[in-house]
Amino acid sequence: LDLFHFQEEGPGVVFWHAKGWTIFQAVIAYMRRRLAGDYDEVNAPQMLDKSLWETSGHWEWYRENMFAAQSAGDEAEDKRWFTIKPMNCPGHVQLFKHGLKSYRDLPLRLAEFGVVHRYEPSGAMHGLMRVRGFTQDDAHIFCTEDQLADECLKINELILSTYADFGFDGELTVKLSTRPEKRVGSDAAWDHAEAVMADVLKRIAASNNRIKTETNPGEGAFYGPKFEYVLRDAIGRDWQCGTTQVDFNLPERFGAFYIDADGAKKAPVMVHRAICGSIERFIGILIEHFAGNFPLWLAPVQAVVTTITSDGDEYAKEVAAAARRAGLRVEIDLRNEKINYKVREHSLAKIPALLVVGKKEAESRSVSVRRLGSEGQKVMPTDEAIAALAEEAIPPDIKRERSKA
Ligand SMILES: [Zn+2]
Asked: Tens digit of pLDDT for each residue in 367-389?
């Protein structure tokens, strides 16, 4: 499908080809629309001094998974070690800490399409599914304890509707992982967070009959309990994608606080959440789920305009230009090959729509439309065919918003 490749010099990091990057950008654009109004999108640095990761606890707990870098020049005056971020959280705590925060600022939701690097042994890497460098659709919500349940439910709604928009309408499991043996925070704080999340889990289960729930005792992170969202693809495989993690540790470690209504300084609760998880892996799952037959809004090339004989060339160019003006991602194929050969080639490349033109079509300003996976073809006025494709290519979230209006 010509979407991406790997090569030896970059173990576990993706070379995105133009078509793969188009899908990647479509996923990001989708998520960005879904965040608008609720989240502030930010961007924290890629490399930060090791000391920050000592404060966060990563240097102690997570060092085996981290990459570190130093100036390469022998004479460089700044020879400190920097960590290439494996997570976005410490950066977001710095953003929260910048400027005094009041309870009125909460909940504060900071989102980042953050590029992270984590060391994986080479045997653990597996195509797009497990890589060393990836982009998370990450966010951190700083809130009060009272706001925690509502925030978890809001995230849950976002996760469920996102998966449905991407065509995962099968079974879904939400797992609650509770306190592990090695942990930080008081038992009272864990009791409270687990009680809130158990209640949220019940409400999630009651809200939707596609959802199964489970509890994994002892499987939570050392800093707090978490939800894991496991979706089932078209052929019944399960993939863990989204997570919601409650954290009472990191804000305190970094001395982050807000001024409460009574004037006292309080540490906010921090919720880490990702919807797709790793965008790279999510695209890997989409490729499997659709077996390459992407819905029109995600397809990197949505239509190819091609000719029966060369006397259709000029008209084919006009059709392609009109389709581009309508916002479609279009390629043009004027090769002097038999039309059946070209049709077969484009269907192997999983092109969703072929617009075939010849002399007759040029004279009647029409196109012959062939859709991937159906044998027939339909001759239509060109402007009608383009309008129908452009309508079909509207992402599902935009369609939903329009139908509300
Ligand atoms: Zn985080």
From this structure: 999 999 888 999 999 999 999 99
